[in-house]
């Protein structure tokens, strides 16, 4: 089994600082929701993001005044890296 490469901050797609400064976020397309609640991600976006059938995406929401105002999809493997980066420093203190 191949050893996973260690990621650096430069390897992370978007950092919280990028979100605040607006340097990583943009509107890619408008999606319609059908009567069953399903949406289709455009093929060009799936190709650029490396999303294939069967891939897992995490859905993250932000609330403002009790209402969801933002919905973000994050590739599951990226979420795992983010969680590890957040938890690792805490585990060293234990």
Task: Summarize the main sheet.
Answer: 2 strands, antiparallel
**Terminal CA distance:** 30 Å
Give helix and strand order, one letter per element, not per position: HHEEH
Spatial order of the strands forming the largest sheet: 1-2
Portion of residues in beta strands equals 15-25%
Number of alpha- plus pi-helical segments:
3
Q: Cα-atom Rg, whole angstroms?
A: 16 Å
Poorly predicted runs are: none
Q: Characterize the overall form.
A: globular
Q: Which structural class do you get from the secondary structure elements?
A: alpha+beta
Q: Can you describe what's shown?
A:
The structure is a single chain. The chain has 94 residues and is α+β, with helices and mostly antiparallel strands. It has a domain at 56-94. It is built from 3 helices and 2 strands. The radius of gyration is 16 Å and the shape is globular. It starts with 15 loop residues before the first helix and ends with a helix. The mean pLDDT is 81.
Layout of secondary structure:
Blueprint: H1 16-21, H2 43-49, E1 57-64, E2 67-75, H3 76-92
Antiparallel strand pairs: 1-2
Essential attributes:
94 residues; alpha+beta; two-stranded antiparallel sheet
Give a summary of the structure in a few sentences.
The protein has a domain at 56-94. 32% of the residues lie in helices and 18% in strands. The longest helix has 17 residues, at 76-92.
């Amino acid at each position: 089994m191949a050893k996973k490469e260690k990621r650096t901050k430069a390897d992370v797609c978007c950092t919280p600082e990028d979100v605040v400064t607006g340097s990583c976020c943009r509107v890619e397309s408008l999606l319609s929701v059908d009567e069953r609640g399903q949406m289709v991600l455009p093929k060009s976006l799936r190709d650029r993001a490396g999303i294939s059938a069967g891939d897992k995406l995490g859905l993250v929401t932000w609330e403002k005044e009790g209402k969801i105002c933002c919905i973000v999809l994050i590739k599951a493997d990226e979420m795992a890296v983010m969680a590890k980066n957040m938890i690792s420093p805490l585990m060293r203190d234990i």
